[in-house]
Amino acid sequence: MQAGGAAPGSPGPAAPPVVQRTGPMPTPGELAAFFERCSWPRALTQAERSAAFEALTVRCHEAHSHVCQRDEIADSWVGVMEGFLSVQDTTLDGRLIMYTGVAPGGWVGEGSLLKPEQRKYEIMATRPTVTVHLPRKTFGWLLERSIPFNHFMLSHLNERLGQFIAMVKFDRLLEPTARVARGISGLFHPVLYPNTDATLRINQEELGWLVGVSRQRVNTALTELEAAGLIRRGYGYLVVMDRQGLSRYP
């Protein structure tokens, strides 16, 4: 995909990919296929799509490594090609809090690009993960140039706000099994994470961080949800059988 047709002042050639672990990098064809599955490029003209694609960089991360540090100035919008990200923070007493998880196909960090301030959270790879980065310069260029991209981003931010309001509501009103059900369902949000596969690679500890309950209580909740036919469990993963059922549980 070439960047021909981009207006003067559009982003230049992409920097070389940053490799943070050993192992094969995605091929150009795999990156192109990932890009085509994403929702936001569909809002762009062909010239804009080409410029955005040429600006992408790919990074590979080991499990439990930082993708983005707290207090840094965001330099890119982050997509997940493979693996799983935890958007998180740590309390003063050392307790980890996961605000949300990002499965393959999801993008995160748009809010940090819209304001020049330090990032208030960190992003960690919970397992070997491949991320795709749209640079701040290109992100800003699309905002200045494309009204459809602005409309997409307004919708995306509104959905993100709704996601976090729902999390607060569920935390205060629902019992633990229902919180686990809604937490799993939220990782399949049709706008924020439209390409999440039915097989979700997340363990009990990570689910506990996400919904604020103990690992033991998560285990009990998963047993109840499996008995209800909503999920099927495996070692280190679960298969969602009925997302709508999870979103309405109990």
TrEMBL record:
Instruction: Map out region (Disordered) in residue numbers.
Output: 1-26
Leader peptide range in chain numbering: none
Which residues fall in a coiled-coil region? none
* UniProt keyword annotations, A-Z: DNA-binding, Transcription, Transcription regulation
Its BP terms in the Gene Ontology are:
regulation of DNA-templated transcription
InterPro entries with a match to the protein in the record: cNMP-bd_dom, cNMP-bd_dom_sf, HTH_CRP, RmlC-like_jellyroll, WH-like_DNA-bd_sf, WH_DNA-bd_sf
One Pfam family per UniProt? HTH_Crp_2
GO MF term list: DNA binding
Identify the residues that the record assigns to the Cyclic nucleotide-binding domain, covering every copy.
40-160
Per its record, how is this protein called by name?
CRP-like cAMP-binding protein
**Naturally occurring in which organism (per UniProt):** Pseudorhodoferax soli
